[in-house]
Amino acid sequence: MQKFLEKDAPPAWLFASFWTIIIVLSLSWNIARQKNEIIEVATNEANTIFEKDLVYYRWATSHDGVYVPITSKTVPNPYLQDLPGLSAVTDTGLPLTLVNPEYMIRQVYEMGRGSGSARGHITSLDPIRDENVADPWEAEALEAFEKGESQVISVEQIDGMPYLRLMRPMVTESGCLKCHAQQGYELGDIRGGISVAVPMNPLFSLYRQNILVLTLAHIPLWLLGLTGIFVSSNRITQAMRKREEAEAKTRSIINNMLDGLITMRADGTIESLNAAACQIFACNPGETLGKNITGLIHFPGRGDAQDASFLPDISGLVGTPKEVTGVRVNGVAFPLEISLSEMSTDHGRLFIATVRDITEEKIRKSEALRTGQLAAIGELAAGVAHEINNPINGIINYTQLLLDNANDKYDETDRDFLSRIIKEGERIAVIVGNLLSFARQRDVIEEVSMKEIVEDSISLLMHRLQKDGIHITVDTPDNLPMIKGNPQQLQQVLVNLLTNAMYALNQRYADSCPEKKLEIRCRLKAAASKEYLCLTVTDWGIGIPQEIINRIFDSLFTTKPPGKGTGLGLSISKGLVRDHHGFLSVESKPGGPTVATVDLPVEANNGDA
Fold this sequence. Notes:
This protein has 609 residues and is α+β, with helices and mostly antiparallel strands. The chain is built from 13 helices and 20 strands. It has helices at 2-8, 12-62, 101-112, 136-146, 177-180, 201-255, 275-281, 285-288, 359-404, 412-439, 450-468, 487-508, 569-579; strands spanning 66-69, 87-89, 95-99, 119-123, 152-158, 161-171, 190-199, 260-265, 270-273, 297-298, 322-327, 333-345, 348-357, 446-448, 471-475, 483-485, 517-527, 530-539, 583-587, 594-601. The strands form 5 sheets. The chain has a 6-stranded antiparallel beta sheet. A 5-stranded mixed beta sheet has the order 15-17-18-20-19. The chain is rod-shaped.
């Protein structure tokens, strides 16, 4: 689930990072905009001061200077001594001196110079007066004017305080030639510049206040956004977790279903399989998804050669369960029950197939049918045994009377014949008694003698053994311990093993011969701290190929031709032995002896029959 969330939902910290970046960019942009506005305000103020000073300068220039009273701060300009009319006297006798525009502007700047006030300065790369020498910043600006710049603006430190400095060039006009023509200037030449410095502290104070306000405005916005992101992310995560838990629960239910579940498109392409379906078809999901359903299921009326081009209209199978043929990836076919349902999706029709391997069910039905048949045969055998028992007793009794009343009427040969008739009649009576006992399938657990089980089973089959010319050897010691079990069921196991052995011998030898032999042995052995009676039935028939020996206990599996076997004998025998807490195994190879071994515990055998 965590992987799902990480894959399909970006984590909250990623959105928080994006939001933080947006807030930082917004704050930075607003701070930069505020700074630009502060610079713009200072620039406008500097331009206003420059334009005002320029108007004063041009006014004075247009009047070729002005006459002012001579004072200690305003003395005759020594650089204008060559000009006529440098001095004048008023009607009252007040002496006057001529002040040119630069002199006037310089005095104005000196009067306004103070801490925290705007400053001005007229300068030149070739000044007449030492006070007009350009500082380094002004020198660079003047050089920029020589290269074509019309204005230079920057924030600089003056006396440790920030100022916005603006400087524009002074262009020689006609009124300027009166004083500066002697320096070689001509009309239109750049002969210097006027620089204006506006203090930035008041504006920076306002700027810092604006930054504080912007920061205080952005912080709540940032926190509000983060809260929304994490709350929304948590809700989304919870919703996705619930959806994933629901999907995981659904997947768990589907994968733990006993029946297989397959989803496929209308063309038969497999989209998903649950664990039960993979187990039924012995397939790997990764190799099966995307393939056609005809590779796993043979639909009725299509034969064995099926592919997508032969796919029937599977919508016709929607409804009641139907029996079809399933095919495992190893090619083994088996009976399969399929139930189809249909649903519509955005991508078209989707078919849901519920499949169930009914092999065991069919086996159980066959076993039930076989059990019913055996019960019917038992009832028939019991009836036949009763019908035979009375006349055979009559034959024995009448023959005995003849023998008892023979006197001198019969010779020794006749007496021998009568004795043989009585003996054979008694043998028939024993056989009928065994058949009647075998027919009585009593569900009773009792003390059982394995020697008697062997003798009774052989008596039932002795006629066939003699007819087929099979030589049988029996080795069952008298001192074998008794075991607890159902005698009829154990006799049924032994009869099945003997019948299979007789068939194998008849397949190899058509007539009687010394090699056509069968051996029954019973011994006591110890295994896993327990005592077992080990009964072996050995025949020297055709043997069992190794490729099928692991399947001989499968229900309905037989190598006999139709009518000769049902494939249930060994399966039923193994089940009966297992019910007695024992083990049944077979070892064989073609051309060699086949040994069937039945191990039955001597103690604590409940039978469970």
